[in-house]
Design brief:
By secondary structure, this protein is mainly beta. It has 2 domains: 92 residues, PDZ domain (Pdz3 Domain), CATH 2.30.42; 109 residues, PDZ domain (Pdz3 Domain, Roll), CATH 2.30.42.10. It contains 4 helices and 14 strands. The longest helix has 9 residues. The relative contact order is 0.22.
Amino acid sequence: MFGCCCVDEKPADYVELQMDTAFPEGKSKKEAPAVSGTFDITLERIPGTYFGIDLSSAGKACVVTSVTSDGLIAEWNSKSGPETKVQKYDRLYAVNGVNSEKSKEVLDTLKGTHNKMVLTFQRAICHEVKVRCGLGSLGMHLKDGPHFLLVLGLEEGVVKEYNKTVGPELQIVQSDRIIGVDGYEGSGASLLEKVRGAGPEVSLKVLAWR
C-alpha cells in the first residue's frame, strides 16, 4: 500500500436527484461561455410532464446518471440523431443560456424553469489513466459520491507529474470524476478503498468535461 490520496473531511457539494419531482423557483445566473462538445435541445415543460432524467450535481459538473424510457428527454431522443441525444455522463451545462461554476446552481435553475426552454449539454471525455506511484503519493484530494470519486483538488504528487506529460483533455483536474479503479466500478466508498489499497501502479477511469 502507498500514500495515495487526501480525503477532504468537508462535505462535498453533490446532490443526487431524480428530475421528475415538483420544481421550486430557481435563480438567474451568468450567461454561459462557449465550450467545446456542447449541443442544445429544446423542450416544453408544462403541467403533467416531467424530464425523466437522473442528475448528479458535484463540484462544477451537473451530470446525467440515467435517462428513463419516457419523459421529455426520452421524447427528444426519439426524434434526434446521435449527435444531439442526451445520454449517460453528459453534463448539463446551461439552462436557457444561463450557467454557473457551481453545479447545484445549474440544477436549481433547471428546477425553476417552466414552459419552453433550451438546455445545453456537454459530452464527457472518458479516458483511462495509468500512473506508477512507487512510494509516492497520488496527491489528489478526493470525496466519495454515490457512484464516483470527486476530485476536489491536487497537491504535489504523481498526478501533477502525470498532468505535465499530457494535453489538457487527458489531465486530471478539479471537478473530474473517477468512476473506475483498476477495472472496478461501484460505489464511491468502494472506489475510495480501491484507491487506498492500490499497488505500485493504478489505473483510473476518469470522466472530464473540457
